[in-house]
Amino acid sequence: MLAELLTTQPKKPSKLVGEAFAPSNIALIKYWGKRDLILNLPITNSLSISLGEKGARTRISLNSANQNTVLLNGHLIAHDSAFYKRLSDFLDSIKPDPQQFYNVETTMNLPVAAGLASSACGFAALVKAFADLYNWDIPEPILSILCRMGSGSACRSLWQGFVEWHAGERADGLDSFAAPLPYTMPDLAIGLCILSSAEKPISSREAMRRTVETSTLYESWPKQVMFDLAEIKQALENQDFHNMGCIAERNALAMHATMLATAPAVCYFLPETVAIMHKIWKLRAEGLSVFFTEDAGPNIKILARQTDIQFINQQIESIDWV
Ligand code: PMV
């Protein structure tokens, strides 16, 4: 059905350059584990917050040569790299004519592949820029599905604010897409603690697969998500910052616990990661409503109230607030 829907769309670009921005997103209730590795279908729902101005801007145009050219932050991506192949395969799956190739130019204002959802905003910006190039007339859920096929969490990067990705049940994934949620938390500030911008030792794709296959704790993960999801929505509904932070933090730690119980273990923590966790727990013990979350990388994302930013900056250095 997806292929059919795309065949009804224009075959030729409607302009020379398609362009779009997509924000990065951070999950407060994590996506960890797939029920379909090819279609990126998750085992559970997940819930994220988008990062405003932090994200990816992509420009795409037709390339007259018989190949794609990909520039990431001004650097040409080698044609024999895994990243180039992943992107080209994705373009092949959505392009209207096998003879068309593209120049793709992406700039990101956050570290690439360091657990800061660079693939999420990257694929979402690519799909949006593609839709702009061809002037696609496609409903948002379908755009979200296309983003998901590029990188699971990209399906949540089409919107700002809080977003939920519905896992769906269908084998073809047509009911697995994200949608914006009606909550706001004007108080919320997100601080990025970049402890390492190095490429991660194991991709989230591989780490997820290993967790689902071997983690003795994975059995409890879907239950944890169901419980946390219901509770965090209630906290968002009540504008309850403290509970929202507690739930997001425990959900991230539960996700990392499933990874630690894999064989061999997946550990994204660096000593600096754990040191910041302790600083945050100490600040909390002293009465401050401050929390963290962490994805498939060593970097910590702080969840705090806007009014506490200055104080937290005095306690923890080099936080990039978004
Ligand atoms: O979409 P992926 O394959 O980059 O996986 C993202 C996984 C986490 O960032 C750890 C959790 C999430 O929900 O974003």
Structure description:
This protein is α+β, with helices and mostly antiparallel strands and 322 residues long. The protein folds into 2 domains: 2-180, Ribosomal Protein S5, domain 2 (2-Layer Sandwich), CATH 3.30.230; 188-321, 2-Layer Sandwich (Alpha-Beta Plaits), CATH 3.30.70. The protein contains 9 helices and 13 strands. The chain has helices at 2-7, 82-94, 118-134, 140-150, 204-214, 221-237, 241-260, 271-285, 309-315, and strands spanning 18-29, 34-36, 41-42, 46-63, 69-72, 75-76, 101-108, 162-165, 178-180, 188-193, 291-294, 300-305, 319-321. The strands form 3 sheets. Strands 1, 4, 5, 6, 7, 8 and 9 form a 7-stranded mixed sheet that branches. The protein has a 4-stranded antiparallel sheet with strand order 11-12-10-13. A two-stranded antiparallel ribbon has the order 2-3. Helix 3 packs across helix 4 and helix 6 packs antiparallel against helix 7 (241-260). It starts with a helix and ends with a strand. (3R)-3-hydroxy-3-methyl-5-(phosphonooxy)pentanoic acid binds next to helix 3 and helix 5.
Fold blueprint:
Elements: H1 2-7, E1 18-29, E2 34-36, E3 41-42, E4 46-63, E5 69-72, E6 75-76, H2 82-94, E7 101-108, H3 118-134, H4 140-150, E8 162-165, E9 178-180, E10 188-193, H5 204-214, H6 221-237, H7 241-260, H8 271-285, E11 291-294, E12 300-305, H9 309-315, E13 319-321
Parallel strand pairs: 5-7
Antiparallel strand pairs: 1-4, 2-3, 4-7, 4-8, 5-6, 8-9, 10-12, 10-13, 11-12
This protein binds (3R)-3-hydroxy-3-methyl-5-(phosphonooxy)pentanoic acid.
(3R)-3-hydroxy-3-methyl-5-(phosphonooxy)pentanoic acid (PMV) binds at residues 27, 30-32, 46, 119-120, 151-153, 204-205, 295-296.
